[in-house]
Amino acid sequence: MLKEDSKKNMACSRVSGPDISFVVAEHLCHSCGTCAGVCGNHAIEMHLSSFGVYVPVINEELCTHCGLCVRVCPGYGFDYHKQYCRIHGSLPEHAILGAYLSGYVGYTTDREVLHRSQSGGFVSTLLIQCIEKGLADGAIVTRWRQDSPLEPESYIAKEREQILAATGSKYNPVPASRMIRNILNEPGRFVFVGTPCQIHGMRKAEEDFPELSEKIFLYSGLSMLRESIRETVSMILNRAAPIRTQKIMVQPNEYSN
């Protein structure tokens, strides 16, 4: 459950300054959903814009203009030096790679996971192992909604099949960080799977909600080469509809030397 300090942060008094509408108007929004996740008054909801991306929309009747939404927004600004020092105690030795112990390339040896995954199934297997070995109680992942196949849905997965339901890349904006309130209210520790902007928002939110860092056992960052809006994916599917497609299964030994 939320601690008293978090409840105060989520419903603080009115202050002067911009709110998240400024970020949207300046085209700085990353569609991460952090602002919606921290708003204790439920004054912010993520809506699909005419451009096919998710943007926060404020309910002025519920908004107290506390400024928290902008404070946690990675689009409004992200101080790498400050965050590195807060998390690791000092700046990284390597400016590009950041803080690291070692680097590896890997893929899953779980054939079911490999069959259902898109890029080797490493993250899915990592999540399953964390849950099955008791290191984490669940993971924040994203799947396609059953009633709307082009709409992403983030949720807390607590067992293998729930992890497998989220396998594969989502080439759409995903406001996964709006799960912050769920994480704080749900007992246990979790793995958060997200893109850099989503994790940036989570890290900024940790400053206002210190217990959030205690709830997140591990951040699993996903490489982001590109992002397609919902309309782009829909257009591609419509054009490809007459074409017969076949799923190609990559066997584990094809990754081996």
Biggest beta sheet summary: 4 strands, mixed
How would the global form be characterised? globular
Which band does the percent of strand residues land in?
15-25%
How would you classify the helix and strand content by structural class? alpha/beta
- Number of discrete helical segments: 12
Total domain modules = 1
Q: Key features?
A:
257 residues; 4-stranded mixed beta sheet; 12 helices
Describe the overall structure:
With 257 residues, the protein is α/β, with parallel strands linked by helices. The protein has one domain (4-94, 104-243). The protein contains twelve helices and six strands. A four-stranded mixed sheet has the order 4-3-5-6. It has a two-stranded antiparallel sheet with strand order 1-2. The protein starts with a helix and ends in a 17-residue tail after the last helix.
Short description:
The protein is α/β, with parallel strands linked by helices and 257 residues long.
How is the topology of this model organized?
Blueprint: H1 4-10, H2 20-25, H3 34-38, E1 44-48, E2 54-58, H4 68-71, H5 80-88, H6 111-116, H7 122-132, E3 138-145, E4 148-157, H8 160-164, H9 180-185, E5 190-194, H10 196-208, H11 210-215, E6 216-221, H12 230-240
Parallel strand pairs: 3-5, 5-6
Antiparallel strand pairs: 1-2, 3-4
